[in-house]
Amino acid sequence: MTKDTAGLSTSRTLWELVERRARLTPDGRALLQDDRVLTFGGLRDRAERTAAGLWRMGVRPGTVVAWQLPTRIETVVLSLALARVGAVQTPVIPFHRDRETRFALRESRAAFFAVPGEWRGFDHTAMAARLGARGVFEAYAELPDGDPSVLPPPPASGTEVRWIYWTSGTTADPSGVLHTDRSLLAGGSCLAHALRPTADDVGSIAFPFAHIGGPDYLVMLLLYGFPAVLLERFALPGSLDAYRRHGVTIAGGSTAFYSLFLAEQRTLPPGERLIPTLRLLAGGGAPKPPELYHAVVRELGCRLTHGYGMTEVPMITMGSPDDTPEQLAHTEGRPPAGMDVRIVDGEIRLRGEAVCRGYLDPARTAEAFDADGYLRTGDLGHLTESGHLVVTGRVKDIIIRKGENISAKEIENLLHEIPGVRDAAVIGLPDAVRGERVCAVVEGGEGLTLETVTTHLRAAGLAPHKLPEQLELVETLPRNETLQKVLKYKLREQYDTHRG
């Protein structure tokens, strides 16, 4: 970390970090989209003018403002403008429709709602009207504008709840997660200091900025003073032009993104690199099979560092380029200073500044934290002697077959080694004799049979009691729209013959 960056790390609020970066490198590129470039100085100035426009509309410190916007320069500006005012903002993933959006607006009691108008064939303004949303305004190409001289001083404290994020949708009902500027700054700092970018790097935000990863990445840009390419929609091969044109050096998003890059690389002639400038893939959001790590390094010709985070704690651990290949392939990295990781009965529990303040629902908050103030993650894992965290699965992903505990993740990692398997999810299904039976749902894998799968797993050393009794081949696994996380509850609903 440079001396300048160390100073930026002491920022108390997100807006204070914006101002410090703008003073340090006002002409440095911050956000790149298509042919547009916004500098750090320009980002501060536009956000202040937008904050003044919001003030004129009646937005005040503590006012709840929901926004459902795609990943655009204007979205980042609006979010920072709300931070400048001291409003409470609740980002909503732009792919969400009436049910999820109604839930977020109702539970947060949003007084204003920013929408993109008609976007990708869907009319968000009309949906807002259907839902009876208050204070609806469009914020796609144009933003509220005003004279910054009308604004009061920016918030001085970063410890008040000013962010309501929504759990990513791997369960049927979302929950509002309460964050402060300080918790988001702590999460972004973990990401930044692990990856060790430089001002010469060019990053990319190809996932929804409304995801908790949005401020994570933004904090990294502000700390290290390098730009990021913004993509409203990530799709290959269409998105490759933006990566190549802007010379992206750091890309990623989640495990699904790595797989998509790999699949596209395999369509090219030997020796031709998919993104010639790419030096690092980095991400999180879903487990990373070791074989996928090795394939990325071998075929894409770059490093891969994977991390572990959740809506409640935006960054818990992160792999570093200085880690060994063994650590990068088999762990999720180390926690930063200030992140206290405790393993209780196999479950990962967390305490530290990056941990959320709880949930909108007080009952959910009471359930989520133990008597010592540690957040119960619901994830299973252990720490290595070097302090790296190994995530072995979810509590609910433990399949109990004839009284024996079976880790779904262990089987999934081995399934990824089978040629032709693009992704795999292992679930437990109710069984009258066994209690639960092991079902493997495989994406791709044309021609695979249960016999060939079990033969491979036996050869890999998997214990016989862990072998799947059911195999389902699918073209595409169900995923959420943010980091493409597999929705196992939908698979359980689909293949549970005892339902109904």
UniProtKB/TrEMBL annotation:
UniProt KW Disulfide bond keyword: no
Q: Which UniProt keywords apply?
A: Ligase
Superkingdom is: Bacteria
Q: Has UniProt tagged this entry with the keyword Ligase?
A: yes
Q: Which residues form the AMP-dependent synthetase/ligase domain?
A: 19-360
Q: Which Pfam families match?
A: AMP-binding, AMP-binding_C
Q: Which InterPro entries match?
A: AMP-bd_C (IPR025110), AMP-bd_C_sf (IPR045851), AMP-dep_synth/lig_dom (IPR000873), ANL_N_sf (IPR042099)
Residues in domain AMP-binding enzyme C-terminal?
410-481
Annotated family: Belongs to the ATP-dependent AMP-binding enzyme family.
* Name of this chain's protein: Class I adenylate-forming enzyme family protein
- Organism equals Streptomyces coeruleoprunus
The organism's lineage is:
Bacteria, Bacillati, Actinomycetota, Actinomycetes, Kitasatosporales
